[in-house]
Recover the amino acids of this structure.
């Protein structure tokens, strides 16, 4: 499959982010803890040059904890502050205020030298679609400030949110980048739901996911669905369809429905805590 999704509203959102970057002290970039590198938009590095950076590994409850710790170390070595968070359940949220203060030490020192005291940090919250930016903002604010949804493209425009006297956040739409140089990156983004499902072939995507699971997490699919994983990839998908009674008219196995169930089980953590890519040191 060829993976690409860069509709016009993303180009518009990128221009908006460029225009507002001059107002910003800190870029808070949310990644998906299951694919921390693939879920980083390379355009953000260009947009956020010379700005303090804080990388959040969101949905950390869905990822292998040992891998997430290694990813935090990796990002810290590259000069970014990094924190594991689970915005939906509030995990790691209490540590964010401290992380923001740590990431902005140079900004506070510059302000002090200029005689500026207590100027709030203005932070832009960025990330790819469906990574949980709005859920994170609501968890940090302790109230519903930003619209959320379990699909890409919910946030359409910018929104300023004052957290307290010390921090103001700018919520931005999720954006991808015009071309994936590595289609493996596109595949991982499709797995986690950051590319719209209705432009993808769900059966082909499920087959690729089964391939990955057999290589890295053999035994999990058999434990979950009671199937024999030793067969070929399509046989595994058919077995999942049979296990979950996915039938179309005429009692034929509905592998498309089974593909949807498999991907939904992965995205919602029902297959356990899985990480799809590992940091270089691992």
């Amino acid at each position: 499959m060829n993976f690409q999704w860069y509709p016009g509203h993303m180009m518009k959102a990128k221009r908006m982010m460029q225009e507002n970057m001059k107002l910003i002290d800190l870029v808070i970039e949310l990644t998906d803890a299951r694919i921390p590198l693939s879920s980083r938009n390379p355009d953000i590095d260009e947009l956020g040059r010379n700005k303090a950076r804080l990388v959040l590994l969101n949905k950390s409850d869905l990822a292998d904890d040992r891998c997430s710790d290694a990813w935090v170390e990796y990002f810290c070595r590259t000069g970014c502050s990094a924190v594991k968070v689970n915005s939906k359940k509030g995990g790691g949220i209490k540590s964010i205020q401290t992380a923001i203060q740590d990431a902005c030490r140079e900004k506070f020192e510059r302000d002090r030298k200029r005689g500026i005291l207590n100027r709030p940090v203005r932070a832009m919250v960025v990330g790819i679609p469906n990574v949980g930016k709005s859920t994170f903002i609501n968890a940090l604010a302790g109230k519903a400030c930003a619209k959320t949804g379990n699909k890409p493209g919910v946030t359409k425009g910018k929104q300023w949110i004052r957290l307290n006297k010390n921090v103001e956040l700018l919520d931005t739409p999720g954006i991808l980048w015009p071309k994936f140089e590595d289609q493996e990156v596109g595949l991982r983004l499709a797995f986690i739901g950051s590319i719209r499902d209705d432009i993808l072939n769900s059966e082909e995507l499920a087959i690729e996911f089964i391939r990955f699971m057999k290589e890295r997490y053999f035994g999990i699919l058999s434990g979950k669905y009671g199937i024999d994983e030793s067969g070929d990839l399509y046989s595994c998908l058919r077995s999942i369809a049979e296990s979950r009674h996915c039938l179309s008219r005429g009692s034929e196995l509905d592998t498309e429905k089974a593909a949807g169930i498999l991907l939904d089980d992965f995205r919602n953590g029902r297959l356990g805590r899985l990480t799809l890519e590992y940091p270089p040191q691992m």
About this structure: The beta strands are 26-32, 52-58, 81-84, 121-127, 159-162, 167-171. The first strand starts at residue 26 and ends at 32.
